[in-house]
Amino acid sequence: MSTNPQDDADRIRLKRLAKLQGAASSASSSPAASTSASPAPPPTPPVVKPSPASPAPSPDPLVVQKRSAGSNPAAPSPVPLKKKAPAVAAPTHLDLPTWEDETISNVLNVTLKKEIAERTGYEMVWLKNLAEEMQGEARLELDSQSMSYVLPFFHNCSRAKEVSSDDLEFLPVLASLPPQQTVFEYLVDCWKRLNAARSTLLKKNYVPLEQRQAMGVLDKLRDLIISYTGLTLQEPEMFPQPPGRQLGPAELVPSLMALSTMSGPYVATSMSTTLLDASEVETFLQDLVRRFEPDNELDGVLGPVVVQLCFHPSLAGGFANDGWRSVVSGLEALVSIKPIAAMITRLPQWNPENVPAPQFEKASLFGPLLALGVFEREWPTIAKTYFSGHETRPHGEITSATASLRGTIKTLQSSLFQIFNALVRASTESREAVLQFFARAVNINRKRAGMQVDPATVSSDCFMMNLQVLLLMFCEPFMDASYSKMDRIDTAYYAHSSRIDLSEETRINATNDEAEQWRKEQPPATGPPNFITEIFYLTLAASHIGQQKIVNNLEELSRQYDEIRRHLETLNGDQSWRGTPFQARTEAAINAAKAQQDALFAAQMAYEVQLGEPELVFRTISFVNFVSTWIIRFVDPRKRHPNPTIELPLPKEVPMAFRVLPEYLIEDVIEYHLYIIRQSPNSLELSGKNEMLIWCLTFLTSTWYIKNPFLKAKIVDVLFIGTWSWGEHRSVLTSLLNTHPMALKHLMPALMNFYIEVEQTGASSQFYDKFNSRRSIAHIFKVIWNNQEHRDALKHEAAHNSERFVRFVNLMINDVTYLLDESLTDLAKIHDIQMEMKDRATFESKPPQYRREREALLRQLERHTSTYVQLGNNTVDLLKLFTGETKEPFMVPEIVDRLAAMLDYNLDALVGPRCQELAVANREKYKFDPKQLLSDILQVYLNLSDQGEFARAVAADERSYRKELFEQAAGIAQKRMLKSPDEIEKLRLFVVKVEETRATLQAEEDLGDIPDEFLDPLMYTLMRDPVTLPSSRVVVDRSTIKSHLLSDTKDPFNRMPLSIEDVIPNVELKQRIDAFLSERRNKNTAYDKPAEDLVHMDISQE
C-alpha cells in the first residue's frame, strides 16, 4: 500500500466529499420522481419571513391558478354588475431539462460544453473531464442527478492548475480560473447566483407543478452549496486554496463585522473584502443552520467563526477604534438565530473551567467584550486622553468628553444585553449556560470583597461593572413600582441552590454552622428556581464584588487626591525655601505633586464616567429600593410590606431564614445609600427617599435583627448625611424626617435607643466608635428639633420609658464630662507649647531632640483636640436642647448631682482662674469657640433654674461651685451679648436660690427639720418672702415666682395668667419664718442678707 502522504490526503478528502454528496442527494428528493404519477394536492407553502438578503417571493403561482382557472357554473345566480377584473395570463410551460442545465451552469459557473465556455471567454469553466465521463448520456446536460459531481470536478480543475498539464486543449480553462479565489469565495458567489435564480423563477408565470419541480432543483443545489460551504469552514485545507490567504472561519468574520454601521477603518483596511452584504448575512446563516443543525454539526461549522469573532484583535484597542462595534454587530446577527445562539453556549470557550479570575475575561468567549470600559487601571489611555491637564482644559471639553464616553458605554452595554438576552431565550440549556457563566464569574472573584485586594488576583473592574449592568438589566422586568412579582423570589434559595458560593460569607445574625444546619432542615424544592430568583440572587452577589468595590476604589483615589492637595498647599504656603539651596528640589517636588494630582483627577473622572452614568444610577437605585423592600417584607410578620407598610418595632424573635442570609445583603444597601447621597443626591428626587427612610427606621427600631454593630452605625450615618446640604444640593432626608408618619413616631426613640446601644459594641475601637455615632445622632436631633411632633415624641419617651431615658441622659452627661475635660485639658497643653515656642530664641536653644518631641506632641494634640472639641460642642448642644424640653429625667438622684458637678466644673474652667490657659492661637483650627460653649452651658443652667433639685445639687457641689463664677460668667455674657437682660436676671435669681438652698441646708443642720409650710413648693428652699398666688392660692417665695414669670406668664399650678404685680404678700407666714431663723446659731448665711446683695449681676450697665 502506498504511504505517500499526498495520496493519503486525497483519499481522506474524497471520502468526505462522498459523504457530502450523499447528504446532498438525500436532503431533497429528485423533482423528476413525481412526474410520472398524478401529483397530490400541493401542500400550503411555508410562510417565509422576507429578509433583505433576498427579494420577497411572489405569491405561489398555484394559488393564482386556482383563483383564475375555475370553470363557470352551469346556472349562475344573477349578481350585480361589478368592475371587470383584469385578465390573468395563462401559465406557460417550463422546459425543465433545459432550464435545469442552464440554471446549474449559471449558478455553479461551469459547463459541459466547450463551445459555451469559449463563447464566454472561459469565464464559465469547462468541465472537460466530467463531460468526457458523460459522453454516453443521451444529453450532455447538467441536472439534479449530475450536479453533485460538478463541484469535485471543478476543484480538480483548480488542483490541476497547481501542476503542469500536457493537455493543450485544457490550458485555456486553467488559465481562466480565478488566480486568488478561495473555495469559500467561490461557494458564496454560487450561493448569491442561486438566490438570483430563485428570485427570477418566482417572478415567472410557470405551471405550478413545473415551478415546484424547478424549486426542488434549486433547493437541492442550495443544499449542495451549503454543504460544501460548511465543509470549507471546518476544514478549508481539504480543498486546493491559493497561498497566503486567510481561510475557513476567517473568511466569514469580515462579513459579520461589516454589519456595523460604524465599522471603522480598522475593519476596512485590515480585513479581506467582505463577501456578503448586510442584506445577505442573515439568510446565509439561516441556510447554514437548516443544513447542519439537524445533524448536530453546527458547532463545528460556525463555532470557530464565533471564536474568531469574539477574540478579534481589534478588541485589544478598546474604545480607541470601532472594532468592538463590528464584533458586537456580528454577534447580534449570529444570536438572532436561535440555534446559533444555543450553539454559542455549548462552545468550550463559553465558560472555561479551571481558569483563574484574572484570566477568565481573557479566556471566556465574551470576556474581551465584557472587559471593555473606561476605568484608568485597565484603560489608562482614556483617562489620559480625555481628562489630563484639567486645570488648563476648558470645562466644556471635559463635560463633552464625559457625555461622549457615557454614550459609548451605554451602546456597548445595551448591545451586550441584547446578545445575552437572545442567549437566554434561545433554549432551556442556553439559559442555564448563561446562569452558570454569571455564577462562575461571581464565585471566582470572591476575593474582591476583601478590604485589601491585589488587582492582579481578580477580574478587572470593567469586567465586573459590565457584568453587573447586564444583571441589572435582566432585573428590570420584575422591578415594577408595585412590587407585584416580588413574591416569585424564593426566600429559601440559599437552601435550594448551591449556585452561589457562600462558604466564606458572614451571615446577618448567625454562624456558618447555624446556616448549614438551617439549610439541611429545609424541605426539598419542588423544582428548580425560576429565572427571576436566579437573576435576583446573582445580581446581589455581583453587586457586592462589583460596583460597591469600584466605589471604594473611587473613594481611595479621592482620598489620595486630597492628601496631595493638602501637601501642595503646605509647600506653596511656606515660601521660606525660595532663594535657598532647597529651591530647585522644592520646585521639583511641587511639579511632581501637580503631575500626580492631575493623574489622580483624570482617574477619578474616568470612574465617574461609568459610576455616574444616569441610566446606571437609575437602575441601581431601583434595584436597591427593590432589595430593601424585599428584605423588609422578609421580616414583616404579615409578608405584605409595602402594602400595607410594616409596623415597627419588629418582633423580638428573629426568623432563622433571615439570620442566615449573607451579611452583604444588608451592607450593600447601606453602602449604596451612603454613596448616592454623597455623589448624586438629586438622583433620589424621583424615587428612593421613602424606601431609604423606612429601611433605616426598620432596623434602627429593631437593632437586634443585625449583629454587626458597624452596619447599624452606618444606618445612622445614612440619616446623618441625608440631612446635609452643600453647594447646589439640598438635603435628601430633612423634609422627610419632619413629615413622614413613621419618622414622626419612631425616629426620636430609635435614635435615643441607639445612643445607648453604641456604648458597648464589642469591638476594640468601641470607645471611639461611639463618639462618631453620637455626633451623627446629635446632628440629627438638631435638624428635627424645631418640629413639635418630634419634641412630643421625646416627652412621650421620657414619660413612658423613663428608665431608658434616664440611661440615655446619663450617657450624654458622661460624654460631656469626658469630652470637655479632654478638650479643655488638651487646649491648655497646646497653650503651654505655643507659649514655649513663641520665645523663639529660648526654644531654638533647646536640644534638637527636645524640639522635635515638642513639635510632634503639638501635632498630636492638635489632631485629637479638634475632634474632642467638636464632639463636646455637639453633646453640650444636645444637652441644652433636651433640658429645655423635658426636665424631670435630669432631676433623678443618679443624674442631678453629676450634672450639676459637671456644669460647675466646666464653668470654672471657662471663666475661673484657669481660663487663661485656654487662650490658644488659631482657635478656629480646633473648632474651639469659648463664647458659644459658655452660652450653651449657661443655657443649661437657665433651662433647669426652676428645678429645686437642681438648685440643691448645685449648692451641694463643694468642689467647683462658687457664686463668683456666675457673676463672672454673667459679666462676659452681658459684654459679649450672649444672653438677654431677662436671661441674666433669671440666672441671678437662680444663683440666689442656690445660695438660699445652701443656707437652708445649714439651717437644717442647726435646727433640724424645717416645717414644710416654710419651704418653697417648687425649689424646696426656706422661703425668704412668701407670697400667695391669686388664682391657685399656693404660697411660694417671691424670687421663685419672679424667676418663673420671666419665661412663662402663667401660674405654674393652674396655668392661669399671672404677673408679679398680682401676687399677695403673706405677712403672717413671713413673721413666723423670721422667728424660726432667729433661733439659728450661724447668723452669716444667705438669709441674713438682702436678696439683692447676695449676687451681683448688674445688668443696668452697658
Q: Key terms for this structure?
A:
1102 residues; mainly alpha; 5 domains; 3-stranded antiparallel beta sheet; two-stranded parallel ribbon; 46 helices; disordered N terminus; RING-type E3 ubiquitin transferase; ubiquitin-ubiquitin ligase activity; UBE4; nucleus; transferase
Task: Classify the oligomer.
Answer: single chain
Cα(first) to Cα(last) distance is 129 Å
Coarse shape: elongated
User: What level of helicity do the residues show?
Assistant: 55-70%
Tally of DSSP helical segments = 46
What is the total tally of β strands?
A: 5
Model regions low in confidence, pLDDT < 50 over at least 5 residues: 1-6, 23-79, 264-272
Q: Which structural class do you get from the secondary structure elements?
A: mainly alpha
Radius of gyration: 46 Å
Number of domains: 5
Give a verbal description of the structure.
This protein has 1102 residues and is mainly α. The chain folds into 5 domains: 96-247, no CATH class; 274-540, no CATH class; 617-758, no CATH class; 794-1006, no CATH class; 1013-1083, Herpes Virus-1. The strands form 2 sheets. It has a 3-stranded antiparallel sheet with strand order 4-3-5. A hairpin with a 6-residue loop joins strand 3 and strand 4 (1035-1037). The protein is elongated, with a radius of gyration of 46 Å.
